[in-house]
Amino acid sequence: MSLGRVLLSLLLPPLAVYDRGCGSIVIVAILTCFGWVPGVIGALVILNKNDMV
User: Fold this and answer.
1) Which one-letter DSSP state was computed for residue 18?
2) Whole-prediction pTM value?
3) What is the DSSP letter of 20?
4) Are 46 and 17 in contact (CB under 8 A)?
5) Which end of the chain is less congested by CB atoms within 10 angstroms, N or C?
6) Which residues are CB-neighbours of 20 under 8 A, at least 6 positions away?
7) Do residues 31 and 39 make contact, with C-beta atoms less than 8 angstroms apart?
8) By three-state DSSP, how is residue 49 classified?
């Protein structure tokens, strides 16, 4: 996970997971609607999960 991705997930969480697929964008967008913090956490988890594999 690059520093740019982390900064992008802090500013615009759905945009940070754009290349991870439509499902990831929808999940993070819904979490962001519930609040900024859940959206950021969801984006960081999705970005970290795919980097570990």
Assistant:
1) G
2) 0.86
3) G
4) yes
5) C
6) 46, 47, 50
7) yes
8) helix
Quote the CA–CA distance of 53 and 11 in Å, as a whole number.
Answer: 25
Question: What's the CA gap between 22 and 6, in Å, rounded?
Answer: 19
pLDDT, tens digit (0-9, with 9 covering 90-100), for 14-52: 999 998 889 999 999 999 999 999 999 999 999 998 666
Q: What is the DSSP letter of 19?
A: G
Q: What is the largest CA-CA distance in the chain?
A: 29
User: Residue 12: pLDDT band by 50, 70, 90 thresholds?
Assistant: very high
Q: If you search the block for the tokens 């570990």, which residue do you land on?
A: 52
Q: How remote is the C-alpha of 32 from its chain's centroid?
A: 9
> Interior CA angle at 35 toward 7 and 30, to 5°?
90
Within 1-53, where are the H helices? 3-11, 13-16, 22-34, 36-52
